[in-house]
Amino acid sequence: MSTSLRPRVSTDAQRSASGCSRPGARLERSRAAAGLAAVCVLALGVTACSLKDAKAEASVSASASASAAVARAEKGIADANASATASREAALTPELRAKRDAALAQPAPEKPEQMNDATREGATLTAWYFLELYRYAYMTGNTTELKAMSDDRCVFCKSVIDRATKLHQNGGWADKWDQELVNATYYEKIEGYDYNELDVTANQGQVVSHPGAGSDPIISAPEENQVLDFSIRHNGTRWMIGGVEVLNK
């Protein structure tokens, strides 16, 4: 039987003897790992910055392209409008141009005194002012005051505003016509209803409307004793028009 007489070497001593646990080696590996991590972080940072810069440049480029497209579109619209205006002007004879200028130069109707009073007189004056604004809108294209006294539910009001606006957008207008208020009948508000009723009898002279674009004028015959049924309410400050219906022509 043979027995080894070599002294037993401890595990720690073995690791030391083999060189696997040398402090210098561990330090070198740590430095290498740290250096590699730094390189990775730097590389990732450069890549991220590059992507961010690329996205920013792409965003700026897209924004610039969109702005340029909008500018071109706006210029195209402006040029088209200018061309259309020039064509309409060329189509007008000196006589028609004078009539148009006279219509556009019409002053806005004056608001009658006591028009805003919550009385039958105030309601009647409001209806007359509405008819004056109706004529003014077709002559000048200005519908600001007409809108201000029209309730959202008033289909007739919206129709007048839209038609007058479109007429002038197409280069048209209406000559001034004569009109007068003959009679007005005011009805007290019925329980459960928001509007008073006001029947207005009016005379209207011949109406000449010019559609523009060189089209022939449209002539409407005079109307006498035309009855207009107004739905009208006082909102605490002024009378508002909720509807207008022509009862007879």
TrEMBL record:
UniProt xrefs under InterPro entries: DUF6318 (IPR046281)
Superkingdom field: Bacteria
Stretch list, region Disordered: 1-25
Residue ranges, compositional bias (Polar residues): 1-19
A Pfam family of this chain: DUF6318
Domain DUF6318, chain residue ranges per copy: 106-242
Protein name: DUF6318 family protein
Organism (species): Actinomyces naeslundii
